[in-house]
Design goal:
Number of strands of chain A: 21
CATH topology of the largest domain in chain A: Beta-lactamase
Strand order of the largest sheet of chain B: 1-2-3
Oligomer: heterodimer
Number of domains of chain A: 3
Number of strands of chain B: 3
Shape of chain A: elongated
CATH architecture of the largest domain in chain A: 3-Layer(aba) Sandwich
Helix content of chain B: 55-70%
Largest interface: A-B, 54 and 53 residues
Structural class of chain B: mainly alpha
Radius of gyration of chain A: 33 Å
Chain lengths: ~600, ~400
């Protein structure tokens, strides 16, 4: 390649040519701008201003599994102030009169939402067409004021949507600082909780920008032709695993019975959540505009804490529903087998200097593990708990998913507490705690604290041969360009029980419904077999909480239901019947409806 | 060893001095505010900077070239240490940590690093015994450049790292490397960028093939060049489409901050309006102050050329461009006649840095190039930038003075 080596002379020539070329381009562009387009730019600089207008993308919709709308958008108007164009002592007083808010409040909002001198700063959202038409007609009277159509989030159904959908609101300064995401600016809307927050980046899309030419009088001349609009990219639609009809059914039936509690319905084969509800619930639409102070005060002051998202943030002792952990651990450790009979129950048993009562003062006599679960005999579980000890029990409880978050794709989940000797050492001081604390844990009382979601997850494992799928709500993402991504269920962990143990536990759970002395006999039906467990959790602040946790059909479960009713006494009395209704609706009624509907369309055909 | 001041290249010094003075005038105008009593005194500061820069210039032309030669790598190391310091004591200005305070003076280490890299590269390329087209020579010079590039690109300062890369390519070329090789190295990168639009990419590919036909590197290297470009051109859109929208946006905004409509994008519109409305002879000195540009935060630094265009029009911009063209013309002349390789490379590199920054800055104000935050040498407000410019002028002058020496 010798012929390529250049002499100094050629190099000078080549580089000289290149530099000249580059200079010509610069001079040519200058000539074009300063001489040829002089008139255009001169006009621009004299009279008109260029305003930057963000183009807000449509926020993605949220659907249930059958493509029924859970969350959509409605049109509303936002009035904004362009700081650069405001006229002192004119703009703000007139605006405050128009909007009916104090001048000082207008100033405050203008400062709080300030982005740039040339960008509209949102002052008030959620305005109707009447205000906007005044602005449209009398534009010059309001210098520096502009409005934009904006979509506001709407949750059409009162279905305890806040507990999983969450809501959106204006982004706070803290969020901008902490998230470090350039996509947000002051005044833009952001998901504040639930699905809306978790998948905010997907739902929100990408903001575009319009350049608008505004005359000296503040009237919009049109788009600025020298700079192209950057279009907004709409957010992706999300399809959830939620079954809206079921969710509605759950909410309607719970509301008619009780005040407070939680319901979790899951598909054990995927971990998909079919229904998730917290009671009392409220309308998340109140967050879409500015919240009226009286409604907000009412929510905060409510002693039933409607803001507490009970399925994942409510912490309760599990009661007898957790006896399955103790039984499973004992079987695994070989402390008992399915035939082992322990000391008889006479309505309680003496341990040390204290008598520990069984829930049934009449006693259960000698029972094996099947009957112990069927009749929920406390004495049986006291005994195996005592043999087992605190730490092995705690280890099994943790391996069953308690004491740590399930990792569901929602916000605000709590982990709960699985006590062990280290925990008690810290709580009471080393060796200063009673060895009989394990007796309470063995029956699901004491310091053992869980969320309803964790219990549902555990029963999903029991229903599904030990395999626990990650609880989740997102089923499908539909991008604005039409691309569809399905969310594949993933196995989160496996219960620490052998197949044999799992079979024993499942048979015992069936006996709770089918057995002669089962605590939930009322749920027997001709359609399918249920496996489940009642629970009654002692509540130091009032009446006992009522639990029922079940799956059906027992041998090939399609649905897991956990119902918690606060201060409602025995699980068999309140929670179990409600869970039964939910299962019947899902497994029988809704399908029959579908069938008749199909038949209907068939007969309609000629 | 006393300099004979009569023998210095006074035309070159005069051109540079004229630019510095025009700079002060423009900075005064850019910050002039008839309505405000607390007029910012940037022009006063700039006058001090220019004075200081001239002092440094005097020192530079009196330093024996042998000393610069001898200290080259030490100076390079010092530059890197200063860049490191930015990470620990740097101030973030507009989101990028580029400078730190040294008493009352804000030092931008990236300017010092430009000088350090120039000296180190000149020294390496001038003295290495490796063959011009050997791989080791290529890799070592890339390594010398890559370290400071990596350090400024994370700040993030795309503009300065572009200066480093341009310097490397330019010195490769001047030190005798075949233009075809350099083209081969740059072309996949251009391919990567051009591939965003198929038409741009095809035009580019045709130009590339044209180049190869003119340069005639032989069949194999030519085929290799074309195929590697095809590879990158096809790969880029595939990789691009796999990215999420917001990731794409981040990359685009990084490459061209002008896309960010709330920041630099707005500035470019205003800059074009200001310049276009200047017309043939401009609105007159201080008369442009009522224009849009008044509201540009960077008008005395990055967008000083727009002030020039608005107030002095096409004539004014032509004069400044002419002065830069003269400096470039003299720079090439000096580098070409120097007998010492090191001196020649030094002069060539100094000219490259001045010219490259000039093109990028003016291109930016015209919307031809991405907004990179590179100042206009000699004109823009800023101490280190002014001093660096005068050191570079000093290197040109001293190289010219000693051109007969080896």
């Amino acid at each position: 390649m010798r012929h390529l080596s250049t002499s100094t002379d050629t190099r000078v020539k080549i580089s000289g040519t290149l530099v000249t070329l580059a200079l010509m381009i610069i001079i040519g562009t200058l000539f074009y701008h300063q001489i040829l387009r002089y008139r255009f730019f001169a006009e621009q600089s004299e009279s008109n201003r260029i305003r930057i207008q963000p183009v807000i993308p449509k926020r993605g919709l949220i659907f249930d599994r059958n493509m029924e709308v859970l969350s959509d958008n409605r049109l509303s108007f936002t009035v904004s102030l362009v700081p650069f164009e405001r006229v002192k002592n004119v703009t703000v007083p007139r605006l405050s009169k128009l909007l009916g808010i104090d001048s000082s409040e207008v100033e405050k909002r203008a400062r709080a939402n300030f982005v740039s001198r040339y960008m509209p700063t949102p002052i008030k959202r959620g305005l109707g067409i009447d205000t906007v038409s005044i602005l449209e007609e009398q534009g010059p009277y309001y210098p520096g004021i502009t409005y934009s159509a904006e979509s506001v989030r709407r949750y059409p159904d009162s279905i305890s949507a806040e507990s999983f959908l969450g809501h959106v609101g204006e982004v706070s300064q803290d969020e901008i600082n902490s998230e470090k995401k350039k996509e947000y600016r002051l005044g833009s809307l952001i998901g504040k909780s639930g699905i809306e927050k978790k998948y905010d980046l997907l739902l929100r899309g990408l903001e575009g920008t319009k350049y608008i030419e505004v005359s000296a009088k503040g009237q919009i001349v049109g788009p600025y032709e020298d700079k192209q609009e950057i279009p907004a990219i709409p957010g992706a639609d999300l399809v959830l695993t939620i079954d809206k009809a079921l969710q509605k059914f759950v909410v309607k039936n719970f509301d008619s019975v009780q005040c407070c509690g939680a319901v979790v319905v899951m598909n054990p084969k995927t971990g998909g959540v079919l229904a998730l509800a917290s009671f009392p619930h409220f309308d998340p639409n109140i967050f879409s505009g500015v919240i009226p102070p009286d409604i907000w005060q009412g929510i905060i002051a409510d002693t039933n804490h409607p803001m507490l998202n009970r399925p994942l943030a409510g912490l309760y002792p599990p009661g007898s529903t957790a006896k399955l952990i103790t039984a499973g651990a004992a079987l695994e450790m070989g402390l008992v087998n399915e035939n082992t009979l322990l000391k008889p129950c006479f309505g309680g048993m003496q341990f040390g200097n204290r008598f520990f009562r069984c829930w049934n003062p009449g006693g259960h006599g000698k029972v094996n593990v099947y009957h112990a679960i069927e009749q929920s005999c406390d004495v049986y579980f006291y005994q195996i708990g005592q043999i087992m000890g605190v730490d092995p029990w705690g280890e099994y409880a943790e391996k069953c998913g308690f004491g740590s978050k399930t990792g569901i794709d929602l916000t605000g989940e709590k982990a709960g507490i699985v006590p062990n000797s280290k925990y008690y050492d810290e709580l009471y001081g080393p060796r200063k705690w009673s060895p009989y604390l394990i007796l309470n844990l063995a029956i699901g009382q004491g310091e053992f604290i869980i969320t309803p979601l964790q219990l549902a997850q555990f029963y999903c494992g029991l229903a599904n041969k030990g395999r626990v799928y990650q609880p989740h709500l997102l089923k499908q993402i539909i991008e604005s360009n039409g691309d569809i991504h399905d969310v594949e269920p993933i196995v989160s962990f496996t219960l620490p029980f052998s197949r044999k143990t799992l079979n024993i536990l499942r048979e015992s759970l069936k006996m709770v419904i089918s057995g002669e002395h089962g605590t939930a006999r009322s749920l027997r039906n001709k359609y399918y077999e249920i496996a489940g467990k009642t629970g009654t959790a002692q509540n130091p602040h009032g009446d006992d909480h009522s639990w029922f946790s079940a799956f059906a059909p027992a041998d090939d479960a399609e649905i897991v239901v956990v119902v918690l009713v606060e201060n409602a006494g025995h699980g068999s009395e309140v929670a179990a019947p409600l869970a039964g209704k939910i299962m019947k609706y899902y497994l029988v009624d809704s399908r029959q409806k579908e069938l008749t509907a199909q038949k209907g369309t068939l007969t309609e055909q000629p | 060893m006393n300099l004979d001041y009569k023998q210095l290249d006074w035309k070159l010094i005069g051109a540079a001095l004229l630019l510095s003075l025009i700079g002060i005038l423009l900075i005064y105008s850019a910050q002039f505010d008839a309505t405000s009593e607390t007029s910012q005194n940037f022009y006063m500061k700039q006058m001090i900077w220019v004075g200081l820069a001239l002092l440094v210039f005097l020192i530079v032309i009196n330093i024996p070239l042998r000393m610069i030669d001898f200290m080259a790598y030490l100076f390079y190391a010092l530059g890197l240490v200063l860049l490191m310091l930015v990470f620990f004591v740097g101030h973030a200005k507009y989101g990028a940590a580029r400078w730190f305070s040294l008493g009352a003076i804000n030092v931008t280490p990236s300017d010092i690093a430009k000088l350090a890299l120039l000296i180190a590269l000149s020294r390496f390329l001038a003295y290495t015994k490796l063959r011009t087209h050997s791989l080791s020579r290529l890799l070592i010079s890339v390594a010398i450049t890559f370290v400071p590039v990596a350090m400024v690109i994370v700040q993030p300062d795309l503009g300065t790292s572009l200066v480093f890369v341009a310097l490397l390519f330019s010195l490769w070329y001047w030190s005798g490397m075949s233009p075809f090789y350099i083209l081969l190295i740059i072309s996949p990168l251009i391919s990567l960028l051009a591939a965003f639009h198929w038409l741009a990419w095809i035009v580019y590919l045709i130009i590339l093939i044209g180049f190869i036909l003119v340069l005639r590197p032989g069949f194999l290297p030519g085929a290799f060049a074309v195929s590697i470009n095809l590879f990158f051109g096809i790969l880029a859109p595939i990789a691009w489409n796999r990215l999420a929208d917001y990731q794409k946006l981040r990359i685009l905004t990084f490459l061209d901050p002008g896309r960010d409509p709330r920041g630099a994008g707005y500035q470019i519109i205003q800059s074009k309006i200001a310049m276009g409305s200047g017309g043939l002879i401009g609105k007159g000195y201080l008369e442009g102050s009522q224009s849009q540009l008044k509201f540009l935060p960077e008008r005395h630094t990055d967008f000083i050329f727009s002030v020039l265009g608005e107030e002095f029009g096409f004539v004014g911009t032509l004069i400044v461009i002419g002065l830069f063209a003269f400096i470039c013309y003299r720079g090439i002349q000096i580098a070409a006649r120097c007998r010492s390789k090191f001196t020649s490379y030094l002069a060539w590199g100094a000219m490259t840095i001045l010219l490259f920054q000039f093109f990028v800055n003016v291109g930016m104000t015209l919307g031809l190039m991405p907004v990179t935050g590179l100042p206009l040498p000699l004109l823009s407000y800023g101490g280190t930038s002014q001093i660096l410019s005068w050191i570079l002028i000093g290197l040109l002058v001293v190289a010219d003075y000693h051109w007969t020496e080896y």
